[in-house]
Amino acid sequence: MAFSFHIGETGPLHLCGHRGNSIAAPENTFAALRSCHAEGGRSCEIDTVLTSDGEIIVLHDLSVDRTSDGTGPARTLTAAEIAKLDAGSWFGPEFAGERIPTLTDFLMLARELDMGLEIEVKEKVDLDGYIRELKKIAADPANLERMMMISFDHASLKRIKEEIPGILTGGIAHERYGDPLAVVKSANLDELCIDLAVFDLDDARRLKAEGIAIRCHAYAPKKFEAALREGLDWTETLKTAFAERLIDTLSGDDVAWLRRFVEENS
């Protein structure tokens, strides 16, 4: 059966690990993807940039410094140079030897695990080169069906959609829009990725009525708990959203916590 980012009439809510199950494994690595799957995740949100020789790699920052033992911007290093870096020891000694994967390799593992990928475009320098490589990757239908390209830059997503037929795109929303449906239509988006703090039930109902998928980002447990202490309780909103099947994907750093929260509030 083909992968779908919509829960459909009978399908379960997707649990999505933010950069993989990043509370338990180094972000954007195979270990984080496998951990997400082990905890019941059906998809992962990951980040991507371009190397100097035109490979798309799975990396949040523009440089390799924070999450590996290397230094420098990814765009100044070749894919082969980046492949030699240790991307796990910074998180814990048990993850020594984890690598910064290419998007192609990450997709291969996602296919093996039957998971979808919400792939954020972090490339800021060479969007043309990024799209050229993305076209090659998306030419494989088995990759294309489980790719949702996401970004804060909705104009870039509109261009990607125009240049790669059949690719899915999701706009990230950290604020409420006056007319979210108009925003979606302006960039021909398939999904809106909405932070929980600005998730609105009426907006979600309008979007779902138009066939737009919704990913709601629910943070990590500590942030949720801090919001509760500050008088912000999103529990009832989420209960209603679950009951009305308004959320296709619920994402966060701790997939086990997401799973328990959904079980307790559905």
In short:
With 266 residues, this protein is an alpha/beta fold. The chain has helices at residues 30-38, 79-83, 103-113, 127-138, 141-144, 154-163, 180-186, 201-209, 221-229, 235-244, 255-265; strands at residues 14-18, 43-50, 56-58, 116-121, 147-151, 168-173, 191-195, 213-217, 249-252.
**CATH level 1 name:** Alpha Beta
Tell me, briefly, the overall form.
Answer: globular
> How far apart lie the N and C ends?
26 Å
Tally of alpha and pi helices: 11
Residue share in helices?
25-40%
What integer is the average pLDDT?
A: 96
List SSEs in N-to-C order. EHEEHHEHHEHEHEHEHHEH
What is the CATH third-level topology name?
Answer: TIM Barrel
Number of strands: 9
- The CATH superfamily turns out to be Phosphatidylinositol (PI) phosphodiesterase
This entry's quaternary arrangement is: single chain
The largest sheet is:
8 strands, parallel, barrel
Rg to the nearest angstrom?
Answer: 18 Å
Sheet with most strands: strand arrangement = 1-2-4-5-6-7-8-9
Derived from helix and strand composition plus strand pairing, the structural class reads alpha/beta
Q: What is the CATH-assigned architecture?
A: Alpha-Beta Barrel
